[in-house]
Amino acid sequence: MLLPALVIVTPALAAANNGNWRTAQRWAHMLSDHYRVRLAQAWSGGSEDLMIALHARRSAASVQAWRAAEQGPLALVLTGTDLYGDIQHDAAAQRSLALADRLVVLNELGLQSLPAEFHHKASVCLQSTPQRQTQVKTTRHLRALMVGHLREEKSPQTYFEAARLLAARPDILLDHIGGGLDEALAAEARMLMQGHEAVARTARELFPLADQAHDEPTADLLTQRLTVHEQTAWMLRALLEE
User: Fold this and answer.
1) Yes or no: domain 5-124 corresponds to CATH 3.40.30.10
2) pTM of the predicted model, to two decimals?
């Protein structure tokens, strides 16, 4: 028996390798036993039986085209950007809410951001991951990772403040994955990077003095500080270059 055809509309495909793409790819895999799945960045026509659209605003044109064609059921998956702002003020995103047969939010608090008139057709779908094997971790330091572009809704100031407060802790390393999409936040990251570079330069300049004085404890401390500040500066530089 021929399986029903499903199109998943996602604003980003494999080249972007971001959250929308990862969600779409994962859902396509999970649903492939029950549907013939096609991933698309936009939909303007086709023979699919149903649609799952990610992002109320960025997929709004596809949602409207699908509803105008009277194709079949339409489920709209609301992203963080939808919930944090778009559905509150963007007309296209609000129209997508009204046109969808079902709304999906990916956490329980997401329902609180939806207008009450849409609660009856909303479902919470908590995403999960298979159990991962615990890796052996070093006891020399703690490595913390922030994942997310530098945008206001990601609260990157929390990360910046942590970097400032922990600057004197060589046993705590901070990493970040994402890009500097907001220019003001990118400027803040640039200033933080320059501060770490300045401290690293100072540490390097003090090395000869510690060597001349045969001061091994100070040399060890300078090595620790240099490692931390150079690594943090490198991480911030890589972020700003993306």
Assistant:
1) no
2) 0.70
